[in-house]
Specification:
The protein has a domain of about 50 residues. It is about 90% helix and about 0% strand. The protein is built from six helices and no strands. The longest helix is centred in the first third of the chain and has 59 residues.
């Protein structure tokens, strides 16, 4: 009797285990199928978007126009395709998380928001540096003016990077306000020197000559 009782207990345990596994499979199978469907749709979307981007940019010849204007070749088609593929991949991941782990969607959105801000700062910095480099290469600019332009670009990029730091809002506001005041004063002084520099220089030389003539008398 004890042997039969142990066999029946083992059978019940196996039956319950198999039943629970079957229930889990039945519950997760639709989600798994939907996840596969999302991935397949995403792959098709990537291929379609890539073909559309290539067609539009090749017909518009934007890369050639930018190369003529700046003198620098920028692989705009490749960059646009990479960004589009990245966006579709992020949407796919968000959809899968919403089905599999809804509790992680909020954390994913917050992390994605921070990464997007960081990437936007990098892109703006690259655009600013590339634009200034192209401007300097196309236009003959004095060394002092080059240094001033690079200083302005550095301050602007620094003000964007401050927003990504883990500092308190008061410190961020104080730093950004300080940089803004510095940029405003620098631009004002530069404008004064740029438009009235020759006049001020002539005026100073005239005053020096008058003083020298008075001393000789």
């Amino acid at each position: 009797m004890s042997i039969n009782f142990e066999i029946s207990n083992i059978t019940d345990i196996i039956y319950r285990t198999v039943r629970e596994i079957g229930i889990e499979i039945a519950q997760t199978a639709p989600k798994f199928a939907v996840c596969i469907l999302i991935v397949l749709v995403g792959i098709l979307a990537v291929k379609g978007v890539n073909m559309l981007i290539k067609f539009v940019l090749e017909k518009s010849r934007i890369e050639e126009f930018i190369k003529r204007m700046t003198g620098t070749y920028i692989p705009l088609t490749r960059i646009t395709i990479v960004l589009a593929d990245l966006g579709i991949a992020l949407v796919i991941i968000a959809g899968i998380l919403h089905l599999v782990a809804p509790e992680l969607v909020t954390a994913y959105s917050e992390g994605l928001n921070y990464v997007a801000r960081f990437v936007s700062v990098i892109i703006l910095s690259l655009i600013a540096i590339l634009g200034l480099t192209s401007l300097v290469s196309l236009v003959r600019i004095e060394e002092k003016l080059k240094s001033f332009v690079m200083l302005m670009a550095f301050l602007l990029i620094l003000s964007l990077l401050i927003d990504l730091t883990a500092l308190s809002s008061e410190i961020k506001s104080a730093l950004v306000n300080g940089i803004s005041i510095g940029i405003g004063l620098s631009i004002g002084i530069f404008a004064l020197w740029f438009f009235f520099g020759e006049y001020i220089e002539k005026r100073i030389k005239r005053c020096d000559k008058e003083r020298e003539s008075q001393h000789e008398c």
